[in-house]
């Protein structure tokens, strides 16, 4: 049974405080988990409880820590760690709100992940095996964010993420190697062209380029210079994070000095998709622009993956509405948007049942915790988005996946089969 639940305040990859929760079982097993934090958050995400005031510019999480150490701990001590749903439901009930408005999703998710990890450890099985059982065997195809813009970098680029997807390889290990080679070549090309090679929050470069198309062009050059075939071996994915671009007159593209309507933006995507091997676009429209999303799905839904992040916020109710209305065809999965391991699993099940692809995802503020690597394999997500091949908080996830691929005998890597 659960013998002790506690938390402390630690730091994330941006130097902001976050929650580290620890769960100890009666057999002596002890496991911890650290909660990530977003920058371009969706409006309907579960609440991340911050202290306010002057400490850490208001971003302290001592209240969330206190909630773990008192009310959550009191409720969970004595419970079995092997029934994740019951543990998560108890925390949901004592919170009593729709969005963890009282305890904080950062308090609840930390404990939820630590309970899962302690249970796995106590049974002596890897976390992906505990959460996914014998059927967990799909190694995710990574989306690596190698040029950062938007609110993840201080450069001129409006779109938030330019990613490569190594789709033409046999396994995860080879895919990651090829991606790292493209990344190194991209750095050389940017330097040769006189651009900055400073990094954004997710380890991608953050050069000042003069349009939102130019990053795609330099990535195409990098793929070629690394000796790979663009499209066939390495495809391109975008996260526009368009909620961040919304202004009164439409969507503001600063780097191109123009403001566009939803329709013009969708036409822009069509143009880009015709010119480049783009296989996936995330948050192409703002989170409230469901008409725009509908249009984008109609125009591009049979050609590319259309991912809802801010749009669905890992929330089964919102996803269900999207499914009914024919909006998008894939969902980004961020456990801290919804607040617990069990609720994340429910959303993934709903998506998979309805033919929506699931992309397990990090946040821009991360830590050394690689929980999502195991979680992606456990749920057979098939895709994971966890930054470039730089910065240890991103590499922690990739290194864990390399380890998992070595362990799994019947590991399956989908790559381009994802899009057939
Ligand atoms: P966030 O960004 O973690 O800052 O929200 C990631 C994303 O938009 O996918
Ligand atoms: Zn996103």
The hetero compounds bound to this protein are: 2-phosphoglycolic acid, zinc ion
Largest sheet, in brief, is: 8 strands, mixed, barrel
Number of strands: 16
**Strands across the major sheet, in which order?**
5-6-7-11-12-13-14-15
Q: Uncertain spans, ≥5 residues at pLDDT below 50?
A: none
Radius of gyration: 21 Å
Name the helix and strand elements from N-terminus to C-terminus, one letter apiece: EEEHHHHEEEHHEEEEHEHEHEHHEHEHE
Report the principal-axis shape.
Answer: globular
Structural class: alpha/beta
- The helical percent reads 25-40%
- Number of DSSP helical runs: 13
- Oligomeric state of shown chains: single chain
**CA-to-CA gap between the ends?**
46 Å
Descriptive account of the structure:
38% of the residues lie in helices and 19% in strands. By secondary structure, the protein is of the alpha/beta class. Helix 1 packs across helix 2 (84-95), helix 5 packs across helix 6 and helix 12 (371-378) packs across helix 13 (392-407). The structure holds 2-phosphoglycolic acid (PGA) and zinc ion. 2-phosphoglycolic acid (PGA) is lined by residues 38-41, 160, 239, 241, 309, 332, 361, 363-364.
């Amino acid at each position: 049974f659960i013998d002790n639940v506690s938390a402390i305040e630690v730091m994330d990859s941006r130097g902001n405080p976050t929650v580290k929760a620890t769960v100890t079982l009666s057999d002596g097993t002890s496991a911890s988990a650290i909660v990530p934090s977003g920058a371009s958050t969706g409006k309907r995400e579960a609440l991340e409880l911050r202290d306010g005031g002057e400490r850490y510019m208001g971003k302290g999480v001592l209240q969330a820590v206190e909630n773990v150490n008192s009310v959550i701990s009191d409720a969970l001590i004595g419970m079995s760690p092997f029934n994740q749903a019951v543990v998560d439901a108890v925390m949901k009930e004592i919170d009593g709100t729709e969005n963890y408005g009282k305890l904080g999703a950062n308090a609840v998710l930390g404990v939820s992940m630590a309970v899962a990890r302690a249970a796995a450890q106590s049974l002596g099985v890897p976390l992906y095996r505990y959460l996914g059982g014998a059927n967990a065997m799909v190694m995710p195809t990574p989306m690596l964010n190698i040029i950062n813009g938007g609110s993840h970098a201080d450069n001129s680029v409006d779109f938030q993420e330019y990613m490569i997807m190594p789709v033409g390889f046999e396994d995860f290990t080879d895919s990651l190697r090829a991606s790292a080679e493209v990344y190194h070549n991209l750095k050389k090309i940017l330097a040769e062209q006189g651009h900055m090679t400073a990094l954004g929050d997710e380890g991608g470069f953050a050069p000042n380029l003069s349009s939102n198309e130019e990053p795609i062009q330099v990535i195409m050059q990098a793929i070629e210079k690394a000796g790979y075939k663009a499209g066939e071996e390495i495809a391109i994915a975008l996260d526009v994070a368009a909620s961040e671009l919304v202004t009164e007159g439409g969507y503001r593209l600063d780097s191109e000095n123009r403001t566009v309507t939803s329709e013009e933006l969708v036409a822009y995507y069509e143009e880009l998709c015709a010119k480049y091997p783009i296989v996936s676009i995330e948050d192409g429209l703002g989170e409230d622009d469901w008409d725009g999303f509908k249009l984008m799905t109609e125009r591009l839904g049979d050609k590319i993956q259309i991912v809802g992040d801010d749009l669905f916020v890992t929330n089964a109710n919102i996803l269900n509405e999207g499914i009914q209305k024919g909006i998008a065809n894939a969902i980004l999965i961020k456990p801290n948007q919804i607040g617990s391991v069990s609720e994340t699993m429910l959303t993934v099940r709903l998506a998979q049942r309805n033919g929506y692809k699931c992309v397990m995802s990090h946040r821009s503020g991360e830590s050394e915790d690689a929980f999502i690597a195991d979680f992606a394999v456990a749920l057979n997500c098939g895709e994971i988005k966890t930054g470039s091949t730089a910065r240890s908080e991103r590499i922690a996830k990739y290194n864990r996946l390399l380890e998992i691929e070595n362990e799994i005998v019947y590991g399956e890597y989908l790559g381009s089969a994802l899009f057939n």
